[in-house]
Amino acid sequence: MKRNKFIITILTAVVSIPLAAYTQNKMRMARTDKGFKVIAGQSRIHGHIKLKGVNANILDVKISGSDTDGGFAMFEQISLSQGKGTPLHIHHLQDEVFYVVEGAYYFQIGEDKFHLGAGDSIFLPMKVAHAWTQVSEKGKMIVTFQPAGKMEEFFVTMASLDHEPTAKEIAQIFADNEMQVVGAPLKIE
Where are the beta strands (DSSP E) in 51-188? Predict the structure, then answer.
């Protein structure tokens, strides 16, 4: 009896190795092998992602994590929420970069605070608490994440809500997408 169980275990392992390799290669084959263009004012996928909760901004996916095997993602954010931004939070797995195209913003990274305007960029390292608030009436930023992580899923989830979420719901959505809320939204100084 033990011998049969041993043989079945060995056969299962032998069959599983090529299957796992095939699955991994199949996932890699989903990555695009051609360059592409995304037209101004359009999104590569998902259409315009209209957020709820932390702000009412619109995000367009310019480069999806699915385009890069999760290595990188880039979004264009149209900011329509003067005086609003994100709660103080941590990305456990992603570095984040913002490039301000137009408008004005206020950022906190750790204990440091920065005013940004058109043409400015800022690097937010993973595992460091950060937040930002929109200062101007309108604005636009390019936001990148490396690796892409679950940021695309986070934005789609925030847009799909049928109500304004509570602070507790927001914290849970952050947690479900590899982030942690650690403080209140940033007040403009």
Answer: 58-63, 73-79, 87-91, 95-102, 104-109, 112-117, 121-124, 130-134, 139-146, 179-185
Rounded to an integer, what is the distance from CA 71 to the centroid of its chain? 12
Count of CA atoms in the C-beta half-sphere (13 A) of 93: 14
How far apart, in Å, are the Cα atoms of 176 and each of 95, 154, 180?
18, 8, 9
Domain 49-185 classification at class level: mainly beta
Q: Residue 175: CB partners within 8 Å, gap ≥ 6?
A: 181
Q: What is the mean pLDDT of residues 89-101?
A: 97
What global pTM score does this model have? 0.81
Neighbour count for residue 85 (Cβ, 10 Å): 23
